[in-house]
Design goal:
Elements: H1 3-13, E1 16-23, H2 30-42, E2 48-54, H3 66-69, E3 73-74, E4 80-81, H4 84-92, E5 101-103, H5 104-117, H6 127-146, E6 150-155, H7 165-178, E7 183-191, E8 193-194, E9 199-200, H8 203-214, E10 221-226, H9 232-242, E11 249-252, H10 260-267, H11 270-277, H12 289-300, E12 303-311, H13 321-333, E13 336-344, H14 345-350, H15 358-364, E14 368-371, H16 380-392, E15 397-400, H17 402-414, E16 422-423, E17 433-437, H18 439-442, E18 452-460, H19 465-470, E19 474-481, E20 483-485, H20 490-496, E21 498-504, E22 509-515, E23 521-524, H21 539-560
Parallel strand pairs: 1-6, 1-7, 2-5, 2-6, 7-10, 10-11, 12-13, 12-14, 14-15, 15-23, 16-17
Antiparallel strand pairs: 3-4, 8-9, 17-20, 18-19, 18-21, 21-22, 22-23
Helix pairs in contact: 1-6, 2-4, 2-10, 5-6, 6-7, 13-21, 16-17
This protein binds glutamine.
Length: about 550
């Protein structure tokens, strides 16, 4: 079917498209706006699907440093994607696939492969029409496959970036081809407040809209990202200068907890205006009661527990965003606020002989320890020391992927006397490779998308902590790693008090392990954080937080005596 015929089908199905672009600068929360729109529409009873367009040339972010790009979110079908997909899944309560993450790299790869296969024989391949057509085809195929009421599209980057232009051109064309009021374009723009002038400034937004107009796009709606309430004067000015109706100018303010934004946007009439734009005669209201309940829970939480995240990537919390969200959410449902301290693993290692030093004192004061995923050697010894602290001091511990490996390496070194125990990822020249590569991984040299990725089944052994958490014998979790616990050592570990409570049956690989004689020391080879959401906390995070709170209460009691 050609593109025109596919577009006709999409129109017949009455699919409505919503695009979100960003203006002035990055990090103003396009993902949060898209999530909010999705939450409002979904809770008004509409079906939604969502796609993120990333203008970078990497095929996916899998090979980028988390410090460069933030967390790599993994979908159920094993795609390594932008962290915004995590926001979407957590808030909209949807399960996305690799089709929701499109980069320029993927588009160019497809076009260039087509060229080699002779698809364009005789023609000169150009950005326009070939690359733009490839983008349009992807979007329309996605819409046809999803058959949802709304397709939300977030365009990464900032308007004015050269890389984004092919995506904006695709939107310009599709908008025309779909016909009137089939695509609603939101432009989220930063509106600064200048404290020295006591004034909110609209000029950066005006310029960003001029840039859009230069590309043939006039936004239908403006979302103003501001630090404080924007009153009517700047809104009127923006309406005139940008050519956007006042009723379609919304404010995106900073809220804690962030979910309050959903309530605010509903109050501003966002959901209703969207429906009006698309000609829905009786707009539906969004039922946000579940989010309201969560917000009340958060507000009622009076106690603070402190959780340490033993991190390698320091400077921004984006590399650990899903882990942090999962920890916080587990706190909400236990009615505790989580005071999260990010401890630099390397620092623990550097200061290992100085227990009175700041970093060790900080670790000693926490109520729970989480060791998240990670790659390469840097910081490993510090993570092992943190696991040792947790085991010896009965502090609840949750190990995620690398965190499981670290927990087992520590056990081998301290309890089993295997002083050189390690993962072959960090040292190949050892007698006790307790974590190593499977033979099938050994031959792989290419780096992109070659790990054990996506969903795998895990059999849970009854009577274990893992079973207590999940309450069932078969679960499915998402993976992103190359190395595995080395089964050669399984018996010795088991005899010394490690319970292998979850196994991938087909290959008999260790998925979950826990330490006996400890209130809660558990590690999983998977990434359960990708399946946790504020409204449905993942069982392993809940198990961990229950143990943290239990210990906290006990400690308080003993401290009183
Ligand atoms: N580096 C480890 C591995 O590849 C752990 C990966 C992770 O934590 N995601 O197995």
């Amino acid at each position: 079917m050609n593109l025109q015929a596919k577009i006709k089908k999409v129109i017949e199905h009455d699919t409505k498209f919503i695009t979100v672009t960003g203006g002035v600068c990055s990090s103003i929360g396009k993902g949060v706006l898209v999530s909010s729109i999705g939450v409002l529409l979904k809770n008004a009873g509409y079906t939604i699907s969502v796609v993120k367009w990333d203008p970078y040339l990497n095929v996916d972010p899998g090979t980028m440093s988390p410090l460069e790009h933030g967390e790599v979110f993994v979908t159920a079908d094993g795609a390594e994607t932008d962290l915004d997909l995590g926001h979407y899944e957590r808030t909209m309560q949807v399960q996305l696939t690799r089709k929701s993450s499109v980069s320029s790299g993927q588009i160019f790869e497809q076009v260039l492969q087509g060229e080699r296969e002779g698809k364009y024989l005789g023609r000169c391949i150009q950005l326009l029409p070939h690359v733009v057509d490839a983008i349009k085809n992807r979007l329309i195929d996605f819409a046809l496959e999803q058959q949802s009421d709304f397709v939300l599209i977030e365009i990464g980057g900032t308007v004015g970036d050269m890389e984004g232009n092919i995506f904006l051109e695709a939107i310009r064309q599709i908008r025309l081809e779909l016909g009137k009021n089939k695509l609603l374009h939101f432009h989220l723009s930063y509106v600064p407040y200048l404290s020295w002038a006591h004034e909110i400034k609209t000029k950066p937004t005006q310029h960003s809209v001029y840039a859009l107009k230069g590309l043939g796009l006039i936004p239908d709606s403006l979302a103003l990202r501001a630090e404080q309430y924007v009153d009517s004067k700047p809104i009127e000015k923006l309406s005139v200068m940008c050519g956007v109706e006042k009723e379609y100018i919304f404010q995106v303010l900073t809220y804690t907890p962030i979910y309050r934004l959903f309530l605010d946007l509903e109050q501003q009439g966002l959901c209703e205006k969207i429906q009006q734009y698309f000609g829905v005669s009786i707009p539906r209201k969004s039922d946000l009661s579940a989010w309201r309940q969560l917000i009340s829970l958060i507000e009622e939480s009076k106690t603070d527990v402190t959780i340490a995240l033993i991190a390698k990537y320091i400077g921004s919390n984006d590399p650990y965003i899903s882990v942090i969200e999962a920890i916080r959410s587990a706190g909400y449902w236990n009615k505790v606020n989580v005071n999260l301290v990010v401890i630099e693993a390397e620092q623990l290692e550097k200061e290992k002989d100085n227990p009175e030093g700041e970093v060790w004192k900080e670790l000693a004061s926490v109520d729970g320890i989480v060791v998240p995923g990670g790659f390469d050697k840097r910081g490993i010894e510090g993570k092992i020391l943190a696991a040792r602290w947790a085991r010896e001091h009965q502090v609840p511990y949750l190990g995620l992927c690398l965190g499981l490996q670290v927990m087992l390496i520590e056990f081998a070194r301290s309890v089993l006397g295997m002083s050189d125990a390690n993962s072959t990822e960090f040292n190949k020249d050892i007698q006790h490779p307790v974590v190593s590569l499977l033979t099938e991984q050994q031959a792989i040299e290419r780096k992109g998308a070659t790990m054990r990725l996506g969903t795998y089944p895990c059999k849970i052994i009854p009577g274990t902590l893992a079973y207590k958490a999940y309450g069932k014998e078969l679960v499915h979790e998402r993976h992103r790693h190359r190395y595995e616990f080395n089964n050669v050592f399984r018996d010795v570990f088991a005899q010394a008090g490690v319970v292998f409570s979850g196994v991938y049956p087909e290959k008999d690989l260790v998925e979950i392990a826990e330490i006996k004689d400890h209130p809660c020391m558990i590690g999983t080879q998977a990434h359960p954080e990708f399946k946790s959401s504020p409204l449905a906390v993942h069982p392993l995070f809940k198990l961990f937080m229950d143990a943290v709170v239990e210990r906290f209460i006990q400690k308080k009691k003993t401290d009183q005596y």
